[in-house]
Amino acid sequence: MTVGTKTKREKLAEREDAIVSAATEAFLEKGMSAAKMAEIAASAGVAEGTLYLYFKNKEALFAAVVARHWESLTEGATAAIAKADSPDDQLEALARYTLRRILADWKLFELSFVLHYPVKEDGVGSDRRGYVRIFDQIVARGIDRGTFAPEADPRLVRDLFFGTIEYAVRSILQTGKNPKLEPVVIMLLTAVRAVLKPGQGQARTPDHAERIEAAVTRLEKLAER
Amino acid sequence: MTVGTKTKREKLAEREDAIVSAATEAFLEKGMSAAKMAEIAASAGVAEGTLYLYFKNKEALFAAVVARHWESLTEGATAAIAKADSPDDQLEALARYTLRRILADWKLFELSFVLHYPVKEDGVGSDRRGYVRIFDQIVARGIDRGTFAPEADPRLVRDLFFGTIEYAVRSILQTGKNPKLEPVVIMLLTAVRAVLKPGQGQARTPDHAERIEAAVTRLEKLAER
DNA sequence: CGCGGCGAATGAGCAACCCTCATTATGACT
DNA sequence: AGTCATAATGAGGGTTGCTCATTCGCCGCG
After folding, report:
1. How far apart are the first and last CA of chain A?
2. Is the pLDDT of residue B1 over 50?
3. Residues 142..161 of A with a Cβ closer than 8 Å to B: which?
4. Which residues of chain B neighbour A153 with C-beta distances below 8 Å?
5. Which domains are present in chain A?
6. B194 touches chain A (CB under 8 A)
7. Which of the 8 DSSP states describes residue B6?
């Protein structure tokens, strides 16, 4: 095999890539159910049956499209936070990047929920794994450094972080206005810091009312049984 | 028309209800694409063609299922916050209710995103409208009363609120553990308050009396039963 | 009581589409 | 050139959403 010639492996990979690309386009334009396998095949320059050599069925092809998107997202985010140094700055960079990126590729992002059927560990949702890990690492580092409170549960804060971003993007797209990301970033960071740094800045001296309420809540639970 | 006899209108409404109920069951069990119109028809006790007299197509039927779910959610939330008095407590009640309810009906909730295709004002997403309005009203009242800072943008905080809840539920379901809602509520309220009461530190003193009174009132109500 | 009229309901049939599989093409290695 | 394993093909099968000509059920009127 000479240089310039494609090996068998490369050819197969190339083909798979062409299929996924064609599928991405089709799914973006028409959505999961309206996109036709015949069209995708034609657009990728292969026969319909060939699709099924690379992907078990339409759903698997769809999953591949979504997976590729998440990989790209994870890659970009890793690069985006590399410039920042402190966990605080990294969090901000991640917020900004995620917001911008999800806004840009919203349709693709939304598609990734269509599959979402079985809430399984290794299901489609596992595509996010890599992305979410970035956040977890930042928080872990912050706790190590003493920037964040060690009693903070990273998984909870993670939900705050990504949930807010997704919903904010949805809102932005619905109002249709020119997107204003900065207010979202500011609010998000305010919220995240309030949770990650309790007792700081907000100087939360033990709050009498909170403690009494908590006591009452305990009583209420007791009474319910 | 006598009592006990069904009028024509009532019969039609009843039939529509039966169809939607059958459809809900089918969609829950099998998902949007795997659920078959023939099954739904049989389960509802009508012919297949009849479905199309009530709903234009499968998607419209699906949308009706989702809409009904959101109506029920909105109803329940309205009742849940009615007991609370201060905006702070209402927010807490809404958080707790939403969390519990979405957790309970997660499949149905998730289904409501399958449709989500066109990000339109009047699309399927408009089902949430009523629900979201509840939140907005609470915040508006809080701003009126001076409990919340007037410069807060309710729409942003809304995304924080519901986004966090949805993602938290997703996490809870993925870990599969016994659901611990309380930590989520606490974090959520911490975050929301940090945003709604900027720079307020612990100067929440004026609130203490009110909150203690409310807590005691709850106990009193409890004791009455 | 019979009858005509009208909206509601039916279900066989059509068209669309995913997927299979028997057949053919490809190209690496003797 | 011949052989063989692997990749690719696309016509056909089976399923399913949806339509439409037909039938049903109810009501008022003569």
Report:
1. 77
2. no
3. 153, 155-160
4. 183, 187
5. 1-55 (1.10.10.60), 66-224 (1.10.357.10)
6. yes
7. P
